[in-house]
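A reminder from the course coordinator: this example appears on the midterm review sheet, so study it carefully.

Given structure:
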């Protein structure tokens, strides 16, 4: 009987342990009648179960009939009066701007690429049909499970400290940006795991990713240089939701100032610095927090693509750079094959996804030469114009909208917007090298063009927009693969060669994998010969081979047996 009691006692303890383990994965929610997050308060008609995702954003549980919001503070305003704005310099009159009543402090539910924006009617892309009227107790806003509500706070003044300047030009009545901040509330149909990421905000089909899938040992620990940023300050740049569902230049006015960088150059610099910091020798605890928020950003961007935003970040000036790395990084860290292979399809193929940096970088071809010497050539004439020549074929190059509008390409190094792009890419490119994800990135031209940019711009203020990226690039770039370098360092437009661990590779002289001088060249395969599975022997011990051949001959083996023995020895040597 005593033995039976012990068995029952042990079984009960095992049951309790299993129960505790299972409960630990379920969020410990609590009842709430309102939630305040980053300056925005949502008030409900009653108490609902609430809690936070791992990134700090809140969720509320729909138990079957939706949740009712009776107040949003600040309240959506439909009659905000704004005087006619001056131009961007705050001084010059803007004759296109007009005094009028506008809608501000707007909210959207599951905003997607085709929904426009309903945050502020002063900005482009405003969708009147998506505007959400201020909710009241008598007419609450009902939101069902698997929905994301983004609420915003608009700027109500301008041209003062802490306030933006007018946008001017294409958005005459908007500010740059028009939104001060935004916050997100997710309504769920069931309680999520306690270690769940917030699902993407675009679309009502939500996928839950989990921190349990992350292997932080994938992050490298390169020794930092003296200009390394404060990682906690950078982490704070990613903690709030980044609004990116509108796309292209019109999205800039609704990118909240307190949430995220606005213009593509700033956006890309922050992403690029973070990419490099994640692979530097900060403490793992510090990097885990930053990684979590960059992954969340990647999940949101991926959700926009899955909801129809495949052409959302096409090349255009400096606007849309910086969106690809967070998606690749999130896929890599979460071991999500679809996400990490977001660029598997090429331009013109089904499932192709536009990314600004890739669509701007290319290798000059005969077609490029013909276009820039033909009647259809139509470059931006704000820069000096220079057409391509036959001698330029093969050179890694940049074009303002090359993939979709090659007639706008301009060879001249001062081509409009050229210097607002590659000066922010070095960090994420070096991180891609360090994590061995170049193949997954699947666009060789950006890597060679970045080498060319860094080579040409040595000593120039437009070489890079970040001292940290520049120092780390100069210190570590040659540790990875092969580096593209100019043959004539005095000529900006010089053709180049590859430096593969101090061995020169000229693709004109390479016809097979065995022509590569070392294993690094084979692995990097700069001439695209398909050498991934090929191995070479850098140095063969000739003396050992001769001794073995003499020994095999002494044993009177046949010629066929001798060849077999040599092949087996070579395989063993490798």
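Designed residues:
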């Amino acid at each position: 009987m005593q033995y039976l009691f012990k068995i029952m006692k042990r079984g009960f303890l095992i049951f309790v342990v299993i129960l505790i383990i299972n409960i630990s994965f379920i969020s410990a929610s609590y009842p709430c009648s309102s939630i305040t997050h980053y300056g925005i308060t949502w008030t409900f008609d009653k108490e609902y179960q609430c809690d936070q995702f791992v990134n700090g954003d809140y969720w509320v549980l729909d138990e079957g009939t939706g949740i009712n919001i009776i107040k949003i503070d600040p309240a959506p305003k439909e009659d905000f009066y704004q005087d006619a704005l001056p131009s961007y310099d705050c001084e010059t009159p803007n004759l296109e701007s007009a005094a009028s009543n506008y809608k501000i402090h707007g909210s959207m539910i599951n905003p997607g690429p085709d929904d426009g924006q309903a945050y502020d009617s002063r900005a482009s892309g405003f969708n009147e049909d998506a505007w959400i009227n201020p909710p009241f107790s008598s007419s609450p806003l009902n939101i069902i499970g698997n929905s994301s509500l983004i609420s915003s706070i608009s700027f109500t003044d301008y041209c003062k400290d802490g306030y933006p300047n007018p946008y001017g030009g294409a958005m005459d009545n908007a500010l740059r940006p028009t939104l001060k901040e935004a916050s997100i509330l997710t309504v769920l149909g069931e309680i999520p795991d306690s270690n769940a990421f917030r699902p993407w905000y675009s679309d009502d089909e939500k996928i839950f990713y989990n921190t349990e899938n992350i292997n932080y040992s994938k992050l490298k620990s390169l020794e930092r240089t003296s200009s390394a940023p404060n990682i906690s300050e950078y982490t704070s740049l990613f903690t709030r939701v980044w609004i990116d569902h509108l796309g292209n230049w019109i999205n800039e006015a609704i990118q909240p100032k307190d949430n995220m960088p606005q213009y593509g150059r700033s956006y890309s610099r922050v992403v690029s610095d973070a990419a490099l910091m994640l692979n530097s020798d900060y403490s793992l605890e510090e990097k885990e927090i930053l990684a979590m928020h960059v992954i969340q950003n990647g999940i949101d961007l991926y959700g926009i693509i899955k909801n129809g935003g495949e052409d959302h970040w096409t090349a255009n000036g400096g606007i849309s750079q910086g969106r690809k790395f967070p998606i690749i990084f999130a896929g890599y860290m979460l071991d999500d094959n679809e996400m990490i292979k977001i660029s598997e399809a090429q331009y013109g193929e089904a499932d192709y996804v536009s990314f600004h940096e890739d669509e701007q970088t290319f290798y000059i071809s005969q077609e490029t030469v013909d276009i820039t010497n033909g009647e259809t050539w139509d470059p931006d004439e704000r820069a000096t114009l220079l057409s391509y020549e036959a001698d330029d074929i093969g050179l890694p190059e940049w074009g303002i909208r090359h993939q979709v509008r090659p007639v706008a390409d301009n060879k001249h190094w001062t081509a409009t917007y050229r210097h607002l792009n590659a000066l922010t890419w070095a960090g994420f490119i070096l991180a891609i090298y360090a994590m061995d994800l170049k193949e997954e990135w699947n666009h060789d031209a950006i890597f060679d063009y970045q080498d060319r940019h860094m080579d040409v711009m040595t000593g120039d203020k437009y070489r890079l927009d970040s001292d940290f990226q520049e120092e780390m690039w100069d210190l570590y770039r040659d540790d990875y693969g092969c580096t593209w370098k100019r043959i004539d360092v005095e000529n900006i437009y010089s053709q180049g060669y590859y430096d593969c661990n101090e061995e020169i590779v000229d693709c004109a002289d390479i016809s097979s994998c065995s022509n590569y001088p070392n294993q690094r060249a084979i692995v990097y395969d700069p001439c695209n010969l398909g050498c991934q599975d090929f191995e070479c022997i850098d140095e063969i011990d000739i003396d050992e081979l001769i001794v073995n051949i003499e020994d095999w001959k002494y044993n009177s083996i046949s010629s066929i047996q001798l060849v077999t023995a040599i092949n087996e020895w070579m395989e063993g040597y490798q």
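The radius of gyration is 29 Å. The chain has 15 helices and 17 strands.
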